[in-house]
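Input/output pair, single chain:
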Amino acid sequence: MKIYTKTGDTGETSLFGGKRVSKDDLRIEAYGTIDELNSQLGLLITHIKDNNIQALLLKIQHRLFDIGSVLAVDPASGIELPGIELSDIEALENAIDNYNQELNPLKSFILPGGSAANAMAHICRTVCRRAERRVISLSKEAELDIPIIKYLNRLSDYFFVLSRLISHVEGAEEIKWQSR
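Output:
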């Protein structure tokens, strides 16, 4: 099977269901940003040593692929795919709460860095926020499953707390923002 089809050479692509749309369509932008986040997350996982955190991050990758698949469906096609469930959001909230128990209260803004893994978690956080914005833009034009937006919102919070946990576990000092 060839990877290239040449069907996108004119700037269009197909949604699941066959509808052709421009490659800069909001739907394509939304699931493309989800794909970018998933790729960044794959890189982050390679720097995580904790098996429990790795397992959760792998589950998150699968959920992101689910979200991308749902976003890639032509709404008129009638195709239904599994999306995000409330238990997925609760899993993130539980992880955030558990990680926060190990951390000192945050008393100032912090900057990404201190270690490669910390910086990668922050990259995931910022790409997740962009994905959330793209999905919200799409939701103004098309009906979307609300748990997707909630999941992305909670996921960016998760990446922030994970970045702090990484610094804590690695013994790296958090870089506090210093205003002029």
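DSSP finds five helices and four strands in the chain. The CA atoms of residues 34 and 44 lie 15 Å apart.
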